[in-house]
Every structure is written in C-alpha cells, then in structure tokens.
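TL;DR need structure tokens for one chain.
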Amino acid sequence: MFLAYGTDIGQKREENQDRVRVESLGDNMCIAAVCDGMGGAASGGVASQLAVDSFIGRVQENFRPDMNSNSIRNLLLNAVHYANTCVYEKSIEDIDKNGMGTTCVAALVHGKNIYVVNVGDSRAYLLTKNGISQITTDHTYVETLVQSGRITAEVAKIHPMRNVITKAVGVEPDVEVDYFEHYEAENFAVVLCSDGLSGYCSDELIYCTVFGNNLDEAVKKLIDHSNESGGKDNITAAIIAN
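>> reply
TL;DR here they are.
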C-alpha cells in the first residue's frame, strides 16, 4: 500500500481550514480522510480538525482486520456520526462557533476492498487502468439541479452557486451520510480531495498525474496546478494506491 497526502492554503485565503489525515491500520489496510471546514473566523478550522480527529480516532479504536464488509460499513457510518456529534456539540457551547461545519470524505482500503463515506462536496475518485471515475456524489445545490435535469454538468462547473453545499458535518444534531463500497482486482488508486483541488483539476489531469506515478510528486503537482490556476480556496489531497 502506498500513501501520500498534502494540503495548502492556496492564493486567496488567510487561513487553511482544510484538514487531512492518513493512517495505517495494518498490512495492506489504511484509512484516509479529508475535511474542508466552514464557519466564521477560525471556526472552519476548528470544525475540520475536530471532525478529522474524532473520525479517524473512532476508526482506529474499533477497526479489526477480520471485520466483514457490513461491519466496516457500520464502523465508518458510526465514525461520521460521532464526528458530527463532536462538531455540533462544540458549536452550540460557544456562540462564536454557532453554525460551523465541515465536509468529510474518507476511504478505508482493506486489500482489494475500498469503502468510502462522504458528506458535502469533498470528493473521492477511483483510478484504474481503465480510467478515472468519481465515487462520491457532491452534496451541492448545483448537483441537485444537474440530477433533476435543470442544468448540465458543464453549466454546473461555472454556476455562481456551485460552492453552496446541502449537507455538512456538525451543522445539525444528525447527518445523512453516503456510503460506497467496491472490490477492485486490478491495480488502483483512490484520490480524496477538497473542492479547492477538484475545482481546478480535471478528471483527465488527476488521472494522468496520479496513476502509475510517484504519489508524493503527484500530490505536489496537483496542488501546484490548483495554485497556478487561481488557488481561490484551500487545496488538499490524499492518495491511497496498491
């Protein structure tokens, strides 16, 4: 298993409110998470840090190598709900942090099995010899317009409300979480990223930069490209490859 990750403040923001963690869970087993915080002052950074640490911590405490797929699903969903509770309770105990929240996308890889959870618009991609596909669905206002056929995917990329998310960790007492699982017999890479990266890097660019290449260099190149293309948001990526 090969792992790489990186984060950057970008060109326009005064603070990096993205957080990323990648941890080994044993031989050929690991967990990675990317959280993109939102909230006034430093609240977004508080939300994303609390979410990523509580999520990863819950997984590390309860993961066992002999878990079956259903147990892993329950573990990941439980970990997101736990993170949601931690962020929400922090937000209501401090008036300055009211309404803070964060996206969360995470992948647990166990051999050839890939398990993904997400809330918000941070993305997970699967890269194989056959190309790249987006695993997650963005929880955004424009994605609902695309799904309903009211606008095209191309229009969504430039829509003025493209960054308005419809779900976030920590904003409400509970949260609805998307879950995906996939078995991949061939070589693969899983890319997790915040919208500060996916907003500038096309699927083709991500694929050509990552698949079959040095992962540390790939993360740097994707971050550099995002900065060179405008860097209006914080930029974060994590990659797991077999």
